[in-house]
Each structure stands twice: as C-alpha cells, then as structure tokens.
Amino acid sequence: MKKLFIGTLAACVLTSSAVYADAISDRKAAMKNVGMAMGAVVKIVKGEADFDPVVASLAFATMNNAAIGIVSLFPAGTETGGETTASPKIWSDMDGFSSAMAKFQADAAAAVAAKPADMGAFKAVFGRVASNCKACHESYRIAKD
Ligand code: HEC
Q1: In angstroms, how far is CA 35 from the centroid of its own chain?
Q2: What residue owns the CA closest to ligand 1's atom 2?
Q3: Lower Cβ count inside 10 Å, N or C end of the chain?
Q4: Which atom of ligand 1 is nearest to the CA of 129?
Q5: If you measure from the C-alpha of residue 48 to the centroid of ligand 1, how many angstroms do you get, rounded to a whole number?
Q6: CB-based contact 90:97 (threshold 8 Å)
C-alpha cells in the first residue's frame, strides 16, 4: 500500500512538472510565432519588403491567434523554470496582464478587420499593434541579454 502511494505520488509529481514545462514551452512557442509575424511586417515598414496585403493580414491574424488563450498558459507554479522570461509581476497582477493581452488581441483583430490596402493604412494599424509588445514586455517580462 505504501509502495503504491509513493508510486502514485511520483507519477503525480512527474505529470504536473511535465504540464508546467508544456505551459512554459507552449507560451514561448506562441510568442515566438508573434515575433516571426512581427518580423514579416517590420520588413515592410522598413522598406525591406514590398507592402503585401496578404502578408500583412496573415501576420496580424497570427498575432491575434497567439494572443487568444495564451493567458491560460501562465498558471500558478510556472513562475520559474523552462528558461522562462516571464516576470513575477504577471502573477501578482494577473488582471493587469490579462487586460494587456486582451488589448493586444483586440488591436491585432482590428488590424485584420481594417484590411489595410496601402502603405499609409498599413502603417497606422501596424503602429497600434506594435505598441503592445514594448508596453507588455516592459511590465511583465524580465529583460535578459
Ligand atoms: C500582454 C503581454 C505581451 C504582449 C502584448 C506581447 N508579449 Fe511577447 N512575451 C510576453 C511574455 C510574458 C513573454 C515571456 C514568456 C516566457 O518566457 O514564459 C514574452 C516573450 C516573447 C518572445 C520570446 C519568446 C521565446 O522564444 O522565449 C518574443 C520573441 C516576443 N515575446 C515577441 C513579442 C512581439 C513581437 C509582440 C508584439 C507584436 C509581443 N511579444 C507582445 C508578453 C507579451
């Protein structure tokens, strides 16, 4: 009986740490997608790539998708580990973090809906979406070099 209990406990500990590792790597992967989408539109802004409405809407849709539900990948217990750069402030101010993510998601969704057809319209929606990255990272991410 004792042996069974210890075995079950070990299985639980293993399971929960695996779940935590998944949450951290899943949220990092989602943010990596956001970063890649950002890279594509930054090239357009910098004039390194031509404005392409398909590329733009795909990039903003990727950001919108990544933001949906990502907050659930920050459960209690995932403050550290898995090379996370999440700031402890996320867990002390989950409401603030959630609303920052909701704003980012809404701005990305609005950028998709705006269907920018030229460079001027594109830059306007880009600016609104991009402001979210720095704002959130400064408050809720530990800068690592
Ligand atoms: C509401 C908050 C929030 C917003 C908005 C946000 N991020 Fe993040 N981002 C985070 C957090 C928190 C992490 C750290 C996640 C971790 O390491 O657990 C992160 C990590 C990252 C990473 C590193 C991923 C990795 O490989 O570890 C990249 C790249 C990134 N963000 C890009 C962006 C870009 C580009 C934008 C804007 C288009 C953006 N983020 C908007 C919160 C945000």
Answers
A1: 9
A2: 136
A3: C
A4: 38
A5: 24
A6: yes
Contacts of 91-94 with C-beta under 8 Å, sequence gap 24+, read: none
Residue 100: Cβ-neighbour burial (10 angstroms; 0-12, 13-18, 19+)? buried
Contacts 24+ apart (CB under 8 A), 30-34: 30/66, 30/70, 30/73, 31/66, 31/70, 33/62, 33/66, 34/62, 34/63, 34/66, 34/67, 34/133
Q: What are phi and psi of 130, to 5 degrees?
A: -65, -30
Residues within 6 Å of ligand 1 by CB: 24, 27-28, 31-32, 34-35, 38, 63, 84-86, 100-101, 104, 130, 132-133, 136-137, 140-141
Q: How far is the CA of 90 from the CAs of 86, 103, 138, in angstroms?
A: 7, 16, 12
pLDDT digits (tens, 9 = 90+) for 94-111: 999 999 999 999 999 999
Note the pLDDT tens digit of each residue in 29-71.
Answer: 999 999 999 999 999 999 999 999 999 999 999 999 999 999 9
Angle at 58 between CA 107 and CA 100, to 5 degrees: 25
